[in-house]
Amino acid sequence: MDRRSGGYAGKILDVTLDPFGVRVRPLDEGTACDYLGGRGLGARLLYDAVPPTADPLGPENVLILTTGPLTGTLFPTGDRIVATARSPLTGIYGAALAGGHFAPELKFAGFDAVLIRGAAREPSYLLIEDGQAELRPAGHLWGKLTDATETALRREARSDKAAVMSIGPAGERLVRYACLIVDGRAAGRCGLGAVMGSKRLKAVVARGSGGVRLARPREFGTLCLELFRNFAASPGMQAFGRIGTLGTVDTVNAFGIFPTRNFRQGVFEGAGQMHGDHFRANYVVRDTACMACPVACTKVARVRTGEYAGAWSEGPEYETVYALGANCGNGDMGAVIRGDRLCDLLGLDTMSAGCSIAFAMECVERGLLSRADLGDLDLRFGNHRALLQALHLIATREGIGDLLAEGVKRMAERIGQGSEAFAIHVKGLELGGYDPRGLQGEGLSMATAERGGCHHFGGYMVMTETSGKVDNLATAGKGKLVRETRMRTVINDSITHCSFVARGPGMEETTLATALQYATGWAFSVDRLRRIAERIMNLERCFNARVGVRREHDTLPERLQREGLTAGPFQGSTVNLPPMLDEFYEAMGWDPATGIPTGATLSALGLNREAADLAGVKP
Known about the structure:
Blueprint: E1 11-17, E2 20-26, H1 29-35, H2 38-49, E3 63-66, E4 81-86, E5 93-98, H3 102-108, E6 113-117, E7 124-129, E8 132-137, H4 146-157, E9 163-166, H5 169-172, E10 180-182, E11 185-187, H6 192-198, E12 201-207, H7 217-232, H8 235-243, H9 248-255, H10 276-282, E13 284-288, E14 298-302, E15 312-314, H11 318-325, H12 333-346, H13 350-365, H14 371-374, H15 384-396, H16 401-404, H17 408-415, E16 425-426, E17 429-430, H18 440-448, H19 461-465, H20 478-494, H21 509-520, H22 526-546, H23 558-562, H24 577-588, H25 599-604, H26 608-615
Parallel strand pairs: 1-6, 7-12
Antiparallel strand pairs: 1-2, 3-4, 3-6, 4-5, 7-8, 9-10, 9-12, 10-11, 13-14, 14-15, 16-17
Helix pairs in contact: 1-2, 2-20, 2-22, 11-12, 11-13, 12-15, 18-20, 18-24, 20-22, 20-24, 22-26
């Protein structure tokens, strides 16, 4: 990379675990220009490094960590780490993001990306420090919870500043939705903690004393200062900073799309105990923030009274309240806070864990799981004690936990007896916390998201469809709208810009283009950013097409397409997916019969090699 360029460290760390070897190679300037960083760079490296035959839990899978061109700067906020690999939960493209301080520390250590290949012979951890990498024994850490692991590794690194990405017992035992815990925050989705566990890698520690060079530091600093002032003066951002993501609860419950009891209902009678104002008044101890964040939406919460008095967590966020709360029929916020902390300590994705438990609860109710299957676990909707017991069993794969650890799709395949009809997942990934029967575009977004049933990677259509600016039940125009919304999400993820902060004042695409220009010294425009986003979306689709994803996989659970909502303003509504899917494929330039990008589309984006790869793939 040109030394005159800014924003990037300019180096990729390529690590093989056995025999241990390290190769430092330059980040190609053309690759940076075409994919930015974060999600885009991760997708590019994944496609190049992982063959379609690779076992997600085998040594051929590669765990990839990527930062972005604004990581480690004062831009609010460009500091998420993106982890990418082939998912052991879905078998397809997998990626997860987390805020905090790991990404800046990795950048300060001198790297834009890290590739971790193979598998260590014994439990180990990887220390990355100022341009160097060392593999150290971690047998003394194997089996430990993530908080104890972080404390021990900072002591060994002799630095409280050292950033730690670790797995808990769930990752060690290859729970398919085990997550990565990043300085107490979760890169939760797709089971990348199990990928790390399969490599016998307990943690990655990053520590750096460098900085980030900016091409035009004065202009960049002025822009950042202006944005911080905008946020400070914004009533909307002040409100978001006060109550965090739990402000969503009131909106989704009023819309009748708050998933309840395994998506059987969209209105939860216990929502009043979960919304942001109640949470702030009764549980919040303090606010915390990622580096360079003007909002501080994360809340440290403590339970003051009741059965779970003394329990605390850095959270829970909305998605955890949906998954461990309403979707399991659990209205006890003390139990949700305790469950959130347990998932962080054990290394579990709260969303997939909660949805797997909710599915099991419905199976119990229908008589599809017996007392012999459950042991002593009284797994019924609303039983918060059993819910917390189940989390322990999942992480250790004991008893019924071994089945729950496989995720909803595999659970339904094993249980059978018609349970597939109410198994709530897309492509094996459990859904985000919005019932798409009241949001047609959100249904399309989840059906077509490349990592599976995801509200984030599919594009935040929920924000648009609950705003009152579009008809949430209309299908016409939603294919084009999902494409547009996803493009902005891809841009955010590739510069590692927080999607919550991205809604703030002044955060238009023109601002992002200007910030990138000041940071890197390269010419950026909105049109160029959108073209980069198109390239990344198509590359992600190419990875999935290469491993067998087709139109028939871009679907939603049977319940959401055939069973109408039972309450709320959109009672009786289902998702009408086919016409939206046709429009989306047309907007994307994908073959309507297969869902595979056409050769013309790929060639126009400079993806000629990918076009050649897919030319030999069977429809």
